[in-house]
Design brief:
One of its GO terms (cellular component) is plasma membrane. The protein is mainly alpha-helical. The chain has one domain (about 5-345): Rhodopsin 7-helix transmembrane proteins (Rhopdopsin 7-helix transmembrane proteins). The chain contains 13 helices and 4 strands. The strands form 2 sheets. It has a two-stranded antiparallel ribbon. α8 (about 275-305) runs antiparallel to α10 (about 330-340). Mean pLDDT is about 75; it is low at about 5-25, about 255-270 and about 380-408.
């Protein structure tokens, strides 16, 4: 992704970063064609994987029954929409840009494209922040989850989208269609700054608002989450070794006593539920992938403006291109993280496909036949021809089943 080009106070233009110059070729407005072909291939593959993966997630969420839907599904849906925004508004325009070498379009389209490119980056980061904040509230302040959690999550998501749109609007005033060099009649979509320190301020602002600030919030939330889980486990562990009932009282029936042993203590780590712990793990993996993909890109961008003698030779151009491609991969790896931690999404989607309906009907038929055989066997065991002892044992077994919910 091209972030900026620099025009000083006197109006002399300097090369943008990342530069398209080949670093030593005779054509001063040329580029490294081999690197460009590699970038086009990777961007095309990234775009296809991001669109297919996120579309699959959205279709699976659409097929999920309402009784299975949860608050996390809403966050995953909007994160997938943000990744699709990155694919269509950032990766696709950059792909077309690399194919044509220069931006071909009017000045208004240049400004809109640069706005939407950064808008997708803001949305992806801030929706990840609000999803992590929701996990923090669920683990550290569980009583607040009873106070209209759906309404709160909707407001958080709407705020993330609105803030992303507002913070990306300065692109309209920074970028414009202009000549690469005065009198060259070669035009590109570049950023222009009145003061010489403009590029430093711009790159620092983008890095801080899209990467540094969100990562600090994410790290803080996960710090509190880990501390809460650790302290809760440490506080509740001795209580599980205590007596199950007060001395002097008659012991409860064996089935009830068995249920009490299996029931977790209120507030223990088990009481967080496997689903809640799984969503915390999923969010942590998504955050880690975001940091791994975007940290090299912003590091190189900051180095490009804060080093006094930074020159865009061919080797540095390759480094910038590779880090930009790595950043774009984040939008196509998130869907597979969702599928890994929410396996029923993929299962529900596959079962809903037309090509799988025949297989599903066949499996249902086999299950029905198996169930009929089991019912026949159970009916025979209750027939008058069986002994009284067998029927008495079945009664005891059904009585123990009544206490099963105690251990859930």
């Amino acid at each position: 992704m091209r972030f900026a080009g620099n025009e000083s106070q006197e109006g002399s233009a300097e090369p943008p970063w990342p530069s398209n110059a080949s670093g030593g070729g005779e054509d001063r407005f040329g580029r490294n064609e081999e690197l460009a072909r590699l970038e086009v291939a990777v961007l095309a593959l990234t775009f296809v994987l991001a669109v297919l993966g996120n579309a699959l997630v959205l279709l699976a969420l659409g097929r999920t029954p309402r009784r299975k839907a949860s608050r996390m599904h809403r966050f995953i849906r909007h994160l997938s929409l943000a990744d699709l925004a990155v694919a269509f508004f950032q990766v696709l325009p950059q792909l077309c840009w690399e194919v044509t070498h220069r931006f071909h379009g009017p000045d208004g389209l240049c400004r809109v494209v640069k706005h939407l490119q950064v808008f997708g980056m803001f949305a992806s980061a801030y929706l990840l922040v609000v999803m992590t904040a929701d996990r923090y509230i669920a683990v550290c302040h569980p009583l607040k989850t009873l106070q209209r959690p759906s309404r709160r999550s909707r407001w958080m998501i709407a705020g993330a989208w609105a803030l992303s749109f507002v913070l990306s609007t300065p692109q309209y005033f920074i970028f414009s269609l202009s000549e690469v060099e005065r009198g060259s009649e070669v035009y590109d979509c570049w950023a222009h700054f009145v003061m010489p320190w403009g590029p430093r301020a711009y790159i620092t602002w983008v890095t801080g608002s899209i990467f540094v600030a969100p990562v600090l919030v994410l790290a803080t939330c996960y710090g509190f989450i880990c501390f809460r889980i650790w302290s809760n486990a440490r506080r509740k562990a001795p209580r599980r070794r205590g007596p199950l009932f007060l001395p002097g009282q008659p012991p409860p029936p064996p089935a009830l006593r068995k249920g009490l042993r299996l029931a977790p203590c209120v507030g223990s780590v088990k009481n967080f539920s496997r689903a809640k712990i799984r969503t915390v793990k999923m969010t942590f993996v998504i955050v880690s992938a975001y940091i791994v993909c975007w940290a090299p890109f912003f590091t190189v961008q900051m180095r490009s403006v804060w080093e006094d003698h930074a020159s865009w030779v061919e080797s540095e151009d390759i480094l910038i291109t590779v880090t930009a491609l790595l950043a774009s991969l984040n939008s196509c790896c998130n869907p597979w993280i969702y599928m890994f931690f929410s396996g029923h999404l993929l299962q529900d989607f596959i079962q809903s496909l037309l090509c799988c309906r025949k297989m599903k009907q066949k499996l249902n038929k086999e299950d029905s036949e198996s169930y009929s055989r089991k019912q026949t066997s159970y009916t025979n065991s209750r027939s008058p021809t069986n002994s009284l002892d067998t029927w008495t044992e079945s009664q005891h077994f059904s009585q123990s089943i009544k206490f099963m919910p105690v251990s859930s």
